Amino acid sequence: MQVYQPEKIHNVMLKLSGEILAGERGHGFDDAVIDHLTDELIEIKKLGYGIAIVLGGGNIFRGGTWKNQSLNRVVLDNIGMLATIQNALYIAEILNKKNYSAEVFSSLAMDKVCDFYSPLRASRSLQEGNICFVCGGTGNPYFTTDTAAVLRAIELNLDVVLKGTKVDGLYSADPRKDPSAEFICHASYQECIERQLGVMDMTAFSLAQENCLPIKIFNIGTPGTLKEAILRSDVGTFIHP
Fold it and tell me: How many CA within 13 A on the CB side of residue 200?
């Protein structure tokens, strides 16, 4: 059985849904939430960690689950990818205003807005001490931002994917619907498959499994938990080979 070893974590991929940025409003931006989030990112940066971030776009537009399924899925997913770019630009600008250097790389070519993503460019930026936002999903429709987060973490040789959610970690069922749901502190990839635990979509999960990339799920909504998820083995759920 593997256990989470904080001393081996130096560079992290943080995956956040766009809805996190919306707070209780459910859409757009909640400035209080974003102010708190950026302060937490700065605190992690002060501890010496390298940080890459993939944001979803659901607070602005969610592609594949848009209710009007008669519209072209490719177009809808492209709109969703553009939403992730808007989110990244906004959060990065707030970090820069707080005097912490942040850089945005897009999987879609948008040279007037931000740099085009490549592993080399993003790696150099991380080495320079920047907080790096990797947006635009994978640059292709039909792939989620979970998949983008795992893919970029592998390309950038990061140590772990930290998936911020609205619950404390992984449960045997949805704790918001089933009060008897069991909290799971750690699980292997195989256990997740056998128990049908919804860590993330199967494309992302399979990619992480194939490349032995660990995942940690934690509650981003609880103040201070981002730092604790990195530093403590007893916070969140650790998914491992």
Answer: 30
pLDDT digits (tens, 9 = 90+) for 174-227: 888 888 889 999 999 999 988 888 889 999 999 999 999 999 999 999 999 999
User: Which one, of 157, 154, 170, lies nearest residue 204 by Cα?
Assistant: 154
- Kindly tell me the burial class for residue 139, based on how many C-beta atoms sit within 10 Å of its own C-beta (0-12, 13-18, 19 or more): middle
Please give the torsion angle defined by the CA atoms of residues 151, 72, 108 and 97, in that order, rounded to the nearest 10 degrees. -90
Taking the C-alpha atoms of residue 200 and residue 147, their distance in angstroms, rounded to an integer, is 9
Task: Say yes or no to pLDDT of 65 above 70.
Answer: no
User: Structural domain boundaries of the chain?
Assistant: 12-240
Give all strands of the β-sheet with 115-116 in edge-to-edge order.
Answer: 115-116, 102-106, 131-135, 50-55, 11-16, 160-165, 215-219, 237-240, 186-188
Query: Per DSSP, what are the bridge partners of residue 204?
Result: none
The radius of gyration computed from the CA coordinates of the chain, to the nearest angstrom, equals: 17
CATH 3.30.420.40 fits 12-240, yes or no: no
Q: Which residues pair with 118 in a beta bridge?
A: none
Q: Which residues contact 187 (CB under 8 A, 6 or more apart)?
A: 170, 195, 197, 237, 238, 239, 240
